[in-house]
Amino acid sequence: MSDVPAKRQKVGGSALTNLHFLLLYAAMLVAAAGNTALQSVMPAIGRAIGIADFWVAIAYTWSAVLWVWLAPLWAEKSDHHGRKALTQLGLVGFIVSMTLCGLVLISGLNGWTGPALTFLLFGLFRAIYGALGCATPSATQAYLAARTRRSARTAQLSALSSSFGLGTIVGPALAPLFVLPFIGLPGPLFAFALIALGVAVAIQWWLPDDRGKLGDGRGAAMSYPSLASMITGASVRAATAPQRQKRLSWSDGRIRQWIVAGVVAGHAQAATLTCIGFFIIDVLRIEPLGAEQPIAIVMMAGAGGTLAAQWGLIPKLGLAPRALIVWGALIAALGLGVTAAASDLYGLVLGFGLASIGFGFTRPGFTAGASLAVPLAEQGAVAGVITSANGIAYVIAPAAGMALYALDPHLPFAVAVLVVVALAWWGRKLR
């Protein structure tokens, strides 16, 4: 049976078969889809258990902080250790984390543990995903790169990285289907854990072991999988750089303005994304059980807007980096304003979709601007800064957004509008 995949058609420019590529793709897809599925049901779960919205947001964004911190370390390890083993390590971390989180949430929903203990345990179990799950993206990249000619690496790694973007739609789309009567709202956690288990078994069975024959390919850290962390190509540039490079300083004069623009836009997006599920429940005045469907619809509109901007509008319009930031910030401001003023599902979908299109412009804008500001020899180094900038918003923005939400549900969106309008005004001066 192990000889069958080797006889199948090879991936262009690579020694991998299509089956091998699909296994690597599935490993990244399930982690991204599972994470966004969790984001779509957590507001409803928090309301059903009776914990303050602020602590719900902090509990499930804690893993993002660990991801930002540890992803570069796992990327370095992918240079020297078996990439298949590291891919499996990340999947096991995802499976264990989702299963334990699902069990503790069932306990909280049934009143077996109190709200505070439930979310304390949930935060601890989510840490497993943040600490280990980030090993999978860099390991799968390194596995693919080591078996692909240099001339074809960029194209194949870009195709592999697109799994994260697809996952942002797949996760919320499937989540409501797994809210089953005998499990309830935590159902998607168990469903994606089972899917990931199937992927891990398939990888163990059909993906060749690479220990002792690592090759010269390597992976790179990727941003935390979320609607606010679209793929920008930075990890691909880092993985295909001539050699692993030390990161540039964030204060480097050539890239500083572009990184500031990216961090500002990222904070506005991450803060409002953290609040959107709770906002949907409050605007529509619906019970927690059943809220997962409208939340999923709005999140899918956001993911679709992001991908439409990234895969359709930007290549068609051909805007320069500065224009992407200015116009993206203005579109995001319009979308956030519509979202804040919405009184029904249509308004929420329209507003959040528009906002996501705007942020879908700003992130590639600051990425391209920073990349063009340095020579080819430093592309790997600037890519590391870009990846960090993409993830840094999850350190403060979720807590800040929920703190504003506690004062008034419209306040996070109003503040974000002011922030991105200021970004648009300031962005006109970017060089």
TrEMBL record:
<feature type="transmembrane region" description="Helical">
    <location>
        <begin position="112"/>
        <end position="136"/>
    </location>
</feature>
<dbReference type="InterPro" id="IPR036259">
    <property type="entry name" value="MFS_trans_sf"/>
</dbReference>
<feature type="transmembrane region" description="Helical">
    <location>
        <begin position="157"/>
        <end position="183"/>
    </location>
</feature>
<feature type="transmembrane region" description="Helical">
    <location>
        <begin position="411"/>
        <end position="427"/>
    </location>
</feature>
<feature type="transmembrane region" description="Helical">
    <location>
        <begin position="258"/>
        <end position="281"/>
    </location>
</feature>
<feature type="transmembrane region" description="Helical">
    <location>
        <begin position="293"/>
        <end position="312"/>
    </location>
</feature>
<feature type="transmembrane region" description="Helical">
    <location>
        <begin position="381"/>
        <end position="405"/>
    </location>
</feature>
<feature type="transmembrane region" description="Helical">
    <location>
        <begin position="348"/>
        <end position="374"/>
    </location>
</feature>
<protein>
    <submittedName>
        <fullName>MFS transporter</fullName>
    </submittedName>
</protein>
<keyword id="KW-0812">Transmembrane</keyword>
<feature type="transmembrane region" description="Helical">
    <location>
        <begin position="54"/>
        <end position="74"/>
    </location>
</feature>
<dbReference type="InterPro" id="IPR011701">
    <property type="entry name" value="MFS"/>
</dbReference>
<dbReference type="Pfam" id="PF07690">
    <property type="entry name" value="MFS_1"/>
</dbReference>
<dbReference type="InterPro" id="IPR020846">
    <property type="entry name" value="MFS_dom"/>
</dbReference>
<feature type="transmembrane region" description="Helical">
    <location>
        <begin position="324"/>
        <end position="342"/>
    </location>
</feature>
<keyword id="KW-0472">Membrane</keyword>
<feature type="domain" description="Major facilitator superfamily (MFS) profile">
    <location>
        <begin position="20"/>
        <end position="431"/>
    </location>
</feature>
<feature type="transmembrane region" description="Helical">
    <location>
        <begin position="86"/>
        <end position="106"/>
    </location>
</feature>
<keyword id="KW-1133">Transmembrane helix</keyword>
<feature type="transmembrane region" description="Helical">
    <location>
        <begin position="189"/>
        <end position="207"/>
    </location>
</feature>
<feature type="transmembrane region" description="Helical">
    <location>
        <begin position="21"/>
        <end position="42"/>
    </location>
</feature>
